[in-house]
Write a structure and sequence with these properties.
This protein is 34% helix and 25% strand. The chain is an alpha/beta fold.
Length: 492
Amino acid sequence: MLAVRGVTKSFGGTLALNAVDLQVESGEVHAIVGENGAGKSTLMKLLAGALQPNAGRITLDGQPHCPENPAEARRAGVALVTQEAELAPHLSVAENIILGREPTRHGMVRWRVLRARAAQALAQVTTEGPAIDLGQRASELSPSERQRVAIARALSQTDLRLLIFDEPTSSLAAADVKQLFAVIARLKQRGIAILYVSHFLEEVVTIADRYSVLRDGHSVGTGLIANTTSSDLVTLMAGGAVVDRKRRIAKQRGAVMLQVRALAGLRMPREASFDLHAGEVLGIAGLVGAGRTELLRVIYGLDKVRSGTLRVRNIQGKSSPAQSLAKGLGLLSEDRRGEGLAHALGIAQNITLSKLLGWGPIVTSSQQRASAQPLIERLGIRCRDADQSASELSGGNQQKVALARLLHHDVDVLLLDEPTRGIDVRSRGDVHRCIDELVARGKAVLVVSSYLPELLTLCDRIAVMCRGKLGESRPVSEWDEHSLLMEATGAS
């Protein structure tokens, strides 16, 4: 169905793809894996018409495929679901799902038919949890809801030949992931070719038939999933073995840095109480929609407090984000596109943006670069230089820039919402080591993660949120994936 031969793509002096080869059969799931910056997303955008190659040849079902724009790619039967769901924020859910393919009669949109088609597509990626209102504006959706709408939009395309998933499950609950895999299985039976990009190698082993590995823009391996292991894939991705991380060893805790009592937001959370100490990592587990992100937003001052009390370093009272930063409290948002970065600015500007004091009345670019460079090296941010635009970075490297800003601000309490979302195995290790260093220096870290193995290796204690209520935290030694899921689903 798809053949890629010697495809090359450069951005100025940066070679993103270098003579890449790829072949995908009809009715197969072909996984594309690689570290952040390996060229995966660039290749997907070439196939979907968002970019054009500098050299090489692409054929789709035996015919040349070089779409000049996404609309042309869609007409050829190619659909792309990106990691950062790209929706029209002012349009409704139903309008986004059927955008560009509205049913009409005599020049008028047939709204009843449009909504019916949108509902049918959305039902394929929804199992548990609250249903998404078809009339709701996309700007009002959470990141997980936006991702479900984007997937539904791709599935609503009736003439699909090649479906591309770029990190489709990074914001989905376990039940929705299972439903997505069932949808993929049905698409395979229809003979549709599927490209599946994911950093979750357990997903790749479960869903894919074959794999291809990219490293530094090159094709470095391909084969049958049945003949490989996750360890083999990691070795190919990293160019060498990656040491598995062991569970944290509990250390002496310090003073209480963040105290939360019966905290509730306008909608979520319904109730949350905990103490976060200096020198520890407290994890918050739970299903998507349980209220974990809302808890962090209420603590930081982005969302309003309905009731309860909050103390940061013995300072009590409600706060705005600016006041939270002044108290030494920092937030890493799960929505790096909408809230995490100023994409039009350079890396150094993004890192230093929240703290420019102490440099005198005039802040120079050289001062910002000098402050940012050690953090770029510390977190392994892959870039040309400190002035490169944040918009040009891969998703994982953008996440590192957002984290680097908190390090530059030197906050004492870090609220990290999905800190390794969309980050490859090696980069995830870089972030984990950084968190370990912060805790060793007496910082307090609160982590929300949908990836249970991450919580079990990163945290000292874990609490589970279910339907807006936060359970009691327990030492990580008392948890495993089964018990976390049992409590998250309310089954325990």
